[in-house]
Design a protein that fits this description.
By secondary structure, this protein is of the alpha+beta class. The protein has five helices and five strands; from the N terminus they run H-H-H-E-E-E-H-E-E-H. Strands 1, 2, 3, 4 and 5 form a five-stranded antiparallel β-sheet that branches.
Length: 207
């Protein structure tokens, strides 16, 4: 390329040199800017994580106290003791049957307990049917809902056993037919302290 002579040529050469320097500066500065933005984002994310971890660490003592309160309340008593599904189902049956019979109701049907997984626990369901007077049915349901371990009544159906307009004899109440599902929760595995106690030899002491 031939530049014009005299001062005009010098200005053009100077402009070209400035343009080249500008392109070189952009070629160096742009990657540095991109990397700077990327590292800034990484640093901000790391600082936010550290801040969250520090908040969690500051709450450790409070969480520890809450865990101690839960342990003191023996929360395991609210669940079925057995962790084997068949044994836990039998345990649920053995809990519910006496409640029905001891409160004046009459057991009419009972099905094997079923089990399903739910949020780290096992939910056992027992479908049963029984007949009883309204007062006995009320006592039976109260016994189920206040039992330990906790039992939950689901899908309750009540049917009269006498036709409409039936007039009972004095001091004789007609029975009500009840069909319901009783649920209970159980753990998937035995507690660690219980497992350790069962595995240690009797009378063993620490040295």
């Amino acid at each position: 390329m031939i530049l014009p002579a005299a001062s005009k040529g010098r200005w053009i050469a100077l402009a070209l040199a400035l343009l080249a320097l500008s392109l070189l500066a952009v070629a160096i500065a742009w990657p540095a800017y991109v990397l700077h933005q990327r590292y800034d984002k990484v640093i901000v994310d790391a600082e936010e994580k550290i801040e969250r971890y520090q908040k969690l660490a500051s709450l450790r003592a409070e969480h520890q106290r809450a865990l101690e309160v839960v342990k003191a309340r023996e929360s395991s008593r609210f669940y079925l003791k057995n962790v084997i599904p068949t044994a836990a189902g039998a345990e649920l049956t053995d809990l519910v049957r006496p409640m029905i019979e001891s409160n004046g109701s009459r057991l009419t049907s009972i099905q094997p307990a079923t089990v399903k997984e739910d949020a780290g626990f096992r939910v056992y369901s027992l479908n049963i049917g029984f007949n009883g007077t309204p007062a006995n049915v009320q006592k039976t349901l109260f016994a189920i809902e206040t039992a330990l371990p906790y039992l939950f009544v689901e899908n309750l159906t009540l049917r009269a056993t006498v036709p409409r307009g039936f007039k009972p004899q004095p001091n004789q109440e007609p029975e009500v037919s009840v069909q319901l599902e009783v649920q209970a929760y159980g753990a998937k595995a035995a507690p660690r302290n219980a497992t350790a106690a069962a595995g240690s030899p009797a009378g063993a002491t620490r040295s």
